[in-house]
Design a protein that fits this description.
Layout (H helix, E strand, L loop, with lengths): L16 H4 L3 H4 L10 H22 L6 H18 L8 H18 L3 H30 L3 H5 L2 H6 L2 H16 L7 H12 L1
Keywords: Membrane, Transmembrane, Transmembrane helix
Organism: Desulfofundulus luciae
Protein name: HPP family protein
């Protein structure tokens, strides 16, 4: 593969470099988690959590209650912040994030477990898809690598804005068009639990 130096696993110059640099864990040997600055938690992670929770809930046909979404998003981001402090390989935090979001959805929205897992999976998969689409473009335009962006608090926050805008637009469109993936059976179970 052009972007990898033979036998070293290191990235070389080439058109695939921006794409490969967003997958640091295997392709360039980077296995440590990046540390999230406090300002990135406030201005990037929490808004991101609010949006992906709203999107997942919308697509599962659950009424959006912002007084529940916002504290759940704050707790999710705080968990993510502390998980990134742990000595775990990159990528494990995503699996932990799915579990955390599912638990928070059960706590705040009293949904059945399958619905909560679906909300978490929808949010995380959408987030990963948008990141895969947007970050190579940002890297190409700025000439920065992902580690350089991660290590700059200002770049980390500012360059995440396009991703947040696209996620917000997708979520707003799904809310406005009332797009849902739910089945009536699951929806009725959720409503029954909310009324308990």
């Amino acid at each position: 593969m052009e972007a990898l130096a033979s036998g070293t696993g290191k990235l070389q110059d080439g058109w695939l470099k921006p794409v490969m640099s967003i997958i640091p864990t295997i392709l360039n040997g980077e296995t440590r988690m990046d540390k999230m600055p406090l300002l990135a938690l406030i201005f990037q992670s929490i808004p991101e959590s609010v949006i992906i929770l709203a999107l997942g809930l919308t697509l599962m046909g659950i009424e959006l209650k912002w007084q529940r979404i916002i504290p759940a998003a704050v707790l999710s981001s705080l968990c993510s912040y502390f998980v990134r402090e742990l000595p775990i390989p990159y990528g494990v935090h995503t699996l932990i994030g799915i579990v955390v979001i599912a638990v928070l959805v059960i706590m705040f929205f009293k949904t059945p477990v399958p619905v909560a897992i679906s909300v978490a999976m929808i949010g995380i998969v959408t987030l990963i898809t948008v990141e895969i689409l947007i970050w190579p473009v940002i890297i190409l335009l700025t000439g920065k690598t992902m580690p350089q962006i991660w290590h700059s608090q200002t770049l980390r926050i500012l360059l995440a804005i396009p991703e947040l805008i696209l996620l917000a637009l997708i979520t707003f469109w799904c809310i406005r068009k009332k797009v849902t993936l739910r089945s009536p059976g699951i929806y009725n179970q959720t409503k029954d639990r909310e009324q308990d």
